[in-house]
Amino acid sequence: MEEQKIKAFMDEVIARNGHEPEFIQAVQEVAETVIPYIVQHDIYHGKNILLRMVEPERLISFRVAWVDDNGEIHVNRGYRIQMNSAIGPYKGGLRFHPTVNASVLKFLAFEQVFKNSLTTLPMGGGKGGSDFDPKGKSDDEIMRFCHAFMTELCRHIGPNTDVPAGDIGVGAREIGFLFGMYKKIRNEFTGVLTGKGLSWGGSLIRPEATGYGTVYFADSMLKTKGETFEGKDVVISGSGNVAQYAAEKVLQLGGKVLTLSDSGGYIHDKDGIDTEKLAFVMDLKNNKRGRISEYVEKYPNASYHAGKTPWEVACHVALPCATQNELNGEDAKLLLKNGCIAVAEGANMPSTPEAIHAFHEAKILFAPGKASNAGGVATSGLEMSQNSLRISWTREEVDERLKGIMNDIHNSCIAYGKEEDGYCNYVKGANIAGFVKVADAMLAQGVI
Ligand SMILES: NC(=O)C1=CN([C@@H]2O[C@H](COP(=O)(O)OP(=O)(O)OC[C@H]3O[C@@H](n4cnc5c(N)ncnc54)[C@H](OP(=O)(O)O)[C@@H]3O)[C@@H](O)[C@H]2O)C=CC1
Ligand SMILES: O=C(O)CCC(=O)C(=O)O
């Protein structure tokens, strides 16, 4: 009966969104775990709550016209998906990448609803961005694009309505330009964006939070098996914000980081990427905006593997921190064959359904991004609180709160995900725990 209900639900979702593969993938994963729970719990039954949750409350799409350094005019498409505001203002990042489209942003916004619910903070879910490609653009071009983007977005957001932040291609530089234009048009200095600079309303630890949080979560999972990061070989993909700070925290906890990557390929450093080498990567990526292949010019003992992903390198722990569907079923089999015992997603939906199936079948520790990478948005929530209170917490205070929230999320996953044989299905746990809070709020607020 559950199978039939899942099929009937997905048929309806596909009929309406069939041309959006990433969105369908994200919804399918939730449906498979949440519908059986709904069936067993009378209060949610017959209310079509999940069907309401898969339809964005609002989907905004707009033209972004901007002028490059040569005076040529370009047109990109901007979006903001306001997915669900049952438990708080819409909250979620902005992505600037040529692959951005409605399907990608809807999957991200949908996952964000569950993730934000898990953080224990009052944040609804949203996501936005543009198909603009920041690669190879000058700082002036980035500024003109961000300003043009915000001239439209500013109508739809606000500190109590919708609070965007960064994601792929949107970091501190872009948040600065976006904030500047919002402030100019609206003539108000408010916490309308998170990930702001420290001198203008930002929070300590926000840059580190997603990567640190992912490792805190992985550490909690390892502890359930009596293990820690000490002496573990760790394979990380990506070399952006999440990957950099995941690597930093792994080093602090005594692990050895063997790989980093970008869309060109991965580097493998058998000696380990230590603090000094990581500082080189941070400068290369954040300031020089270079390619990860340049690592082997500086450290010739390392190797570069063009067009490949790091999952072929033997490790104890894998942290996919780049992008969606970057780790497939074959990669998962390879990781398992090589002795991997834990995978924690720093990116959003980096593992394909086949990969997740393989991890579950092997009963290794597997954390879905909506649980393990929630530290970023949680610390954005802490930035919002500090903005409202007009105070700044210390680094230690924010880090302690982040650790506490990641621990709470881990406990929620265990509470809803532990199976009869003792194995914790963190996907099921995260989906149900995230669902319950939002669904209860939707029930209380009636059919709207
Ligand atoms: N920033 C945050 O706070 C949060 C981010 N996330 C998720 O973490 C992931 C990484 O985000 P973040 O680090 O902020 O982004 P960045 O833009 O800082 O870095 C992205 C990294 O991923 C690589 N990458 C992007 N697209 C691809 C691709 N198609 N194939 C291979 N590599 C790719 C980039 O390589 P290249 O430079 O070559 O494009 C880069 O190394 C995303 O899934 C994001 O949604 C989740 C929660 C919060
Ligand atoms: O901090 C935020 O609001 C955005 C974080 C985000 O986009 C994510 O969790 O995927």
From TrEMBL:
<dbReference type="GO" id="GO:0004354">
    <property type="term" value="F:glutamate dehydrogenase (NADP+) activity"/>
</dbReference>
<protein>
    <recommendedName>
        <fullName>Glutamate dehydrogenase</fullName>
    </recommendedName>
</protein>
<dbReference type="InterPro" id="IPR006095">
    <property type="entry name" value="Glu/Leu/Phe/Val/Trp_DH"/>
</dbReference>
<keyword id="KW-0547">Nucleotide-binding</keyword>
<feature type="binding site">
    <location>
        <position position="115"/>
    </location>
    <ligand>
        <name>substrate</name>
    </ligand>
</feature>
<dbReference type="GO" id="GO:0006537">
    <property type="term" value="P:glutamate biosynthetic process"/>
</dbReference>
<feature type="binding site">
    <location>
        <position position="210"/>
    </location>
    <ligand>
        <name>NAD(+)</name>
    </ligand>
</feature>
<dbReference type="Pfam" id="PF00208">
    <property type="entry name" value="ELFV_dehydrog"/>
</dbReference>
<feature type="binding site">
    <location>
        <position position="380"/>
    </location>
    <ligand>
        <name>substrate</name>
    </ligand>
</feature>
<dbReference type="InterPro" id="IPR006097">
    <property type="entry name" value="Glu/Leu/Phe/Val/Trp_DH_dimer"/>
</dbReference>
<feature type="binding site">
    <location>
        <position position="112"/>
    </location>
    <ligand>
        <name>substrate</name>
    </ligand>
</feature>
<keyword id="KW-0560">Oxidoreductase</keyword>
<feature type="active site" description="Proton donor">
    <location>
        <position position="127"/>
    </location>
</feature>
<feature type="binding site">
    <location>
        <position position="241"/>
    </location>
    <ligand>
        <name>NAD(+)</name>
    </ligand>
</feature>
<dbReference type="Pfam" id="PF02812">
    <property type="entry name" value="ELFV_dehydrog_N"/>
</dbReference>
<comment type="similarity">
    <text>Belongs to the Glu/Leu/Phe/Val dehydrogenases family.</text>
</comment>
<dbReference type="GO" id="GO:0000166">
    <property type="term" value="F:nucleotide binding"/>
</dbReference>
<feature type="binding site">
    <location>
        <position position="166"/>
    </location>
    <ligand>
        <name>substrate</name>
    </ligand>
</feature>
<dbReference type="InterPro" id="IPR006096">
    <property type="entry name" value="Glu/Leu/Phe/Val/Trp_DH_C"/>
</dbReference>
<feature type="domain" description="Glutamate/phenylalanine/leucine/valine/L-tryptophan dehydrogenase C-terminal">
    <location>
        <begin position="203"/>
        <end position="446"/>
    </location>
</feature>
<dbReference type="InterPro" id="IPR014362">
    <property type="entry name" value="Glu_DH"/>
</dbReference>
<feature type="binding site">
    <location>
        <position position="91"/>
    </location>
    <ligand>
        <name>substrate</name>
    </ligand>
</feature>
<comment type="subunit">
    <text>Homohexamer.</text>
</comment>
<dbReference type="InterPro" id="IPR050724">
    <property type="entry name" value="Glu_Leu_Phe_Val_DH"/>
</dbReference>
<dbReference type="GO" id="GO:0005829">
    <property type="term" value="C:cytosol"/>
</dbReference>
<dbReference type="InterPro" id="IPR033524">
    <property type="entry name" value="Glu/Leu/Phe/Val_DH_AS"/>
</dbReference>
<keyword id="KW-0520">NAD</keyword>
<feature type="site" description="Important for catalysis">
    <location>
        <position position="167"/>
    </location>
</feature>
<dbReference type="InterPro" id="IPR036291">
    <property type="entry name" value="NAD(P)-bd_dom_sf"/>
</dbReference>
<dbReference type="InterPro" id="IPR033922">
    <property type="entry name" value="NAD_bind_Glu_DH"/>
</dbReference>
<dbReference type="InterPro" id="IPR046346">
    <property type="entry name" value="Aminoacid_DH-like_N_sf"/>
</dbReference>
